[in-house]
Every structure is written in C-alpha cells, then in structure tokens.
C-alpha cells in the first residue's frame, strides 16, 4: 500500500481542524428560545476561555489561506518546483499571515497569568516551528528534488496544526 497523495492528506488535515473548531463551538452554544429568561443570569463557568477560543477561530482564515495557496502552488507545480521569486513571495505571504495570527495571542508579560504566559510561549514555539517548516518547503521547492517537497509539505501541515492548536489554547 503506497503513501496517500499529499494533497489528500493536506485537505483532510485542514478539514478536520476546521471541523473541530467550528463544531466544538457550535455544541457549546445553546440557542433554544424557550430557555431565554428576562432575569439576569450568572455566566457559564469557563465561558471566558471558550469565548477566547471562539474569537481565535476568526484568525484561522488569515493563517490558512496563504499557507493553502503556497501548498497548492507547490503541490500542483511540475515536480513540486517553483521559481525562486514565486517561492519567496508565497512563503513571505504565509509567514506574514502566521506572524499576524500569532500576534493576537496573549502576551507573555510578567503581569500576565500563568495560563496566558504558557499559551503565549506555546504560540511563539509553534510559530517558530511553522516558520522553519516554511523555510524547508521553500528550499525544497527550488532545489529540483521533488521527493523533498512531500516531506516538507507534511512539515508545513504539522506546523500549521500546531499553531492553530496553540492559538486555541489546546
């Protein structure tokens, strides 16, 4: 049995990440009108953390689109090879999107709570891992060795999922 095509793995991983993010928050929301009351109610325990995760979902599009564009271009190119200019442009766009999304994570400052510092550290580490994977993909897509592109693409997907998980605080 051979290895599944990278495109199929990539789309499956991205769909699973998006599905988990979207459906997880849908189950957390209760929109039944018969439960609505006119009296003030206490917030749901842990609501702040869930709302932070829900708000993070908006950043996924910012990160996913440029990375998807890069992977599409590389995986559809003849033997996974791009021109140096095209690879540089696509990787720069992906890194800019990653940096923009990572900047929305809680700051790892001294006044921040332990959870916020830990999440910020996780996001920073995940960003560095993804940046390194993007560099590896850029090199593979311009070196002339199509076999390296597959491994580098897997590295980008793994790094992307790590970043998305860290942004959600998982």
UniProtKB/TrEMBL annotation:
Q: Which UniProt keywords apply?
A: Signal
Write down the superkingdom of origin.
Bacteria
- The residues the entry assigns to the signal sequence are 1-28
Is this entry keyworded Signal? yes
What name has this protein been given in UniProt? Answer: Secreted protein
Recorded source organism is Streptomyces incarnatus
